[in-house]
């Protein structure tokens, strides 16, 4: 491994810190809450300086990270955290002596899903998942897009909220546990193989771990389809993700989704 210069190391920390601050409403407000001088914090962001150990501890505590943000790219650290969490979950739900995941039943790749909206009764959600295998663990990554504009009077969407999940296989289907990481809300989904005799789809039900609120739901049917098109088809599907009236949901999937009432 080629040794890194002090400037390179500072650049890694600055890049990580900028990524962590992306979800903050204001750098000035962040500095006040953590108790850091704004001018000095700007030097950290630009890669000009390292924080003292006590300042680093405040930063790590606020963002719920560890001191590896000084030396390793944040993307690598987060991927490692997700893999370790997935391994722990797999060992709990599927102990080492359990049957390994039959990957041919759910090959790695891009999948499209449809479900009823949890927060907008009568609406349908269309989304894309990337399913991939790391160290024999079947994992998922995706993001939600919320329809609220960033600023009133604009058409810009609110920031994308990423989420991750891990699959576990059962004799008659697969279950999926997902977390956004930034909110203390989990979703649990079970899929059975096929829908009305068609092996093109996976039919399931999804539930959110949150209290019942008026005008919202915690339980919804969900239909999953493996994507088999080309790059142009994927771009077209990417433009369809979000919340809508269900006009783009296939009829077979619509019938499956409408089996459960809204606000259940």
Record keyword descriptors for this entry.
29% strand; alpha+beta; 30% helix; 8-stranded antiparallel barrel; 264 residues
Structure write-up:
The chain is α+β, with helices and mostly antiparallel strands and about 260 residues long. The chain is built from 7 helices and 9 strands, in the order H-H-H-H-H-E-E-E-E-E-E-E-E-H-E-H. An 8-stranded antiparallel barrel has the order 1-2-3-4-5-6-7-8. A hairpin with a 2-residue loop joins strand 6 and strand 7. It is elongated, with a radius of gyration of 21 Å.
Describe the secondary structure blueprint for this structure.
Layout: H1 6-21, H2 27-34, H3 38-45, H4 53-63, H5 74-93, E1 109-116, E2 124-134, E3 137-144, E4 161-170, E5 173-179, E6 186-195, E7 198-208, E8 219-226, H6 231-238, E9 242-244, H7 251-257
Antiparallel strand pairs: 1-2, 1-8, 2-3, 2-9, 3-4, 4-5, 5-6, 6-7, 7-8
